[in-house]
Amino acid sequence: MEEIETLWKEVRELSLGDSDRVDHLECPPTPLQFLRDFVCQNKPCIISNATLHWPALSSWTHDSYLTGALSSADVSLHLTPHGQADALVPLDGSLCFSSAHVQRMPFPEALNLITNNESPSKLVAYAQQQNNCFLSEYSALAADCDPHIPWASEALGCLPDAVNMWIGNHLSTTSFHKDHYENLYAVVTGQKHFLLLPPTDVHRMYIRMYPAAQYSYSHDTGEFKLELEKPDRYVPWCSVDPYPSPEDRDKQLSNFPLYFDGPKPFRCTLNPGDILYL
User: Fold this and answer.
1) Pfam families, from UniProt (predicted)?
2) Could you say which of 45, 64, 98, 197 would form a disulfide bridge with 23 (CB–CB 3.0 to 4.6 Å)?
């Protein structure tokens, strides 16, 4: 174990430095700087003051603006009882990979469900459709943002394959996962907290195969039902919960020592105007 810990430390210091913080730039880099210092090194960074010129940073803080612009738009809303979509949850005594109940509805109704997070109905709504949804479901807002990030597009040599939009509240969480793309994540309102691990730490995530399950939600009863998919389907997913509940903490620490006893993940928080490259 000591040899493995030494290797982790050396790999991190070589590729990411000896800090547990993500590099932070106070203004957008040149394409050359971005390519040389971050893309080629597969190194995340936060760029502040990157989108302050977007009209979205002022107009999207008002629900009335959003509901007016999207008054006739139907969007895909993801519903779960706890805010954890695409995550491991217990079912019949074991864990399964759960997907949210997805429902199309008018945007004003969807936004009301997202922001009404004090309801006792045990329903957490999250707009997280992906699949280039910003340019399809939310196209009425497209003029409020740049169509791409020029310095990043020049460095990467291409325009974005997809532009997505997420709208959630403090109950919306995303479990550990990996993306197969270069990502630029921009926060317009609120905050977004990230835990990051380098690819060399993949063994610490205890990726295992879990049966896929799907939530269904009844608006009549206000209840969720979770059922395994038919035919059976299995999904490789991270077994670690980085924020275990008090009653589950000892079990998590015992079952996944490589994560909890190893180097700490990189933590960062994005504010309006910030972009995270990863």
Assistant:
1) Cupin_8 (PF13621)
2) 45
